[in-house]
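Lab notebook, bench 4. Still working through the backlog of constructs that have no structural model yet. Next entry is a single chain of 411 residues. Request: give me the structure tokens for it.
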Amino acid sequence: MSIPSADAARKHLVLSRALLQALYTRSRIDIMYPAAPLFRKDPVLPDIDDLRKRIDAIDEELVRLLNERAAAAFDIGDLKGSGSVYVPAREKAVYEHLFRLNTGPLPNHALQSIFREIMSATISLQRKTSVAYFGKEGTFTHQAALRQFGRSIHYVPCAGIEDVFDSVEKALADYGVVPVENSTEGGVNLTLDMFISSSPRICSEIYLPIHHHLMAARSDIDLSSVSRVYSHPQALAQCRRFLGSELHHAELVPVASTVDAAIRVREEPRSCAVAGEVAAEIYGLSIVRRNIEDNPRNITRFLVIARESGPPSGNDKTSVALSIKDEVGALHHILEPFESAGVNLTRIESRPGRRRTWDYVFFIDLEGHADDPPVRKVLDAVKSSCAYLDVLGSYPRADSMPVPEADRPPA
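Model written out:
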């Protein structure tokens, strides 16, 4: 028996790989298009017109099923009566169920985006729902609200964080979205202070990766011709490396917000703005460079507030505010019951209280729901050692490291 040459062996290997690839492609087609014949004149792909007809047929079925789903959700709304139509624990269960079912090729985050809009539409069918948020249209808080509630909800921009709390407390809005902490800048003090003086509760949390984009009125703008770059001072500072390298010749102009920057460059053809993606969409700008921030892991945590919290989801967090007694070892007496009960604390921060000078309020996030027996027991134990304790809300635990846009595979 003759031994094949190295060149022949390599050729055979290449052919084998090509055959395997063809079989793999064929199997994908057979799974997706079972009506496609095995052998045809063009054996790699069915005819484009045939594929489009199949997509049209799938779309027709999707429309029927979506309306069937919406009708069922509408019936649920009737059964709820005046109860909340936005139930974070239920939405989390829906997403987890979808992820278990998903075998691709759609990634989970794409599937979640699709169903976010489906559920947003059904919420709006059940009852007109309004969400107040801090800032103008196109801010990162607005972007976080859109991610959480979708585009079928009525949104109410508010000039200040206190206005968001006021809108929810007075039932001018069903929910509110406010920033509470940033991974590089720390806590948002005004949000924490508002929990001391107002009644809204936390019902959900959102972690939003903060990506800054360079945008302009024209997509074909030559960066060498740019004379000004507008943005909020914090955004300009967070993009220092890119701006110093690519736009070192341009004047950096700080403005009140990234949205104000986007609005200004609409009328200035030789200017750019640094802002978020939603700002470009709303104000009709073209993104000319994406993700120009120095730190791609910059994440802001937002809270969704309502007039009441929701039921347990099975993987929850609880936020409390407490004030300790003025005595030796008071803080130790507060923390010791959590350790003894094995309840993990994920965050602790203090703020000056308003009752008397040098009085401090501690804001604590812990794992578990306030209705869980172990958590309820430890909170009762802690309360006996506090000057006061207020449960700010229990809510489903969100992913604190969501997939950044830059790390997602291309569509």
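Notes after review: Residues 1-41, 404-411 have pLDDT under 50 and may be disordered. Residues 60-126 form a domain with the Chorismate Mutase Domain, subunit A fold (CATH 1.20.59.10). Flag for follow-up if needed.
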